[in-house]
């Protein structure tokens, strides 16, 4: 992102904003297995078709999904599989953070009751 003009940073922020909604991440994860229509996605997510459709529109605007009409149905698929590499990178970072926090908690739990303020 080095030396990007403000307009480009706005686009980057909009892309990340599309990924900041848990329902959209759930939809992307479902589409990882292949294309689906709105009804299938709504049923799998437990949301209304209108709600899922709104999220899909947002994902499409950011270039994350593509839509294709077939007869009376519209099918969605991943437009840029690199989004999964990005999500996996973030998930790995979060997992490492939790591991560090757990390790720090274990250190304190092992020393509980042995410090200078503990009761004899």
From TrEMBL:
Record bears the keyword Transcription: yes
SUPFAM superfamilies: Winged helix' DNA-binding domain
Domain of life the protein comes from: Bacteria
UniProt xrefs under Pfam families: HTH_5
Domain HTH arsR-type: 4-98
PROSITE patterns: HTH_ARSR_2 (PS50987)
Signal peptide span: none
InterPro entries per the UniProt record, alphabetical: ArsR-like_HTH, HTH_ArsR_DNA-bd_dom, Metal_resp_trans_reg, WH-like_DNA-bd_sf, WH_DNA-bd_sf
Gene3D superfamilies membership: Winged helix-like DNA-binding domain superfamily/Winged helix DNA-binding domain (1.10.10.10)
Keywords: DNA-binding, Transcription, Transcription regulation
GO terms of molecular function: DNA binding; DNA-binding transcription factor activity
PANTHER family membership: ARSENICAL RESISTANCE OPERON REPRESSOR ARSR-RELATED, ARSR FAMILY TRANSCRIPTIONAL REGULATORY PROTEIN
Protein name: ArsR family transcriptional regulator
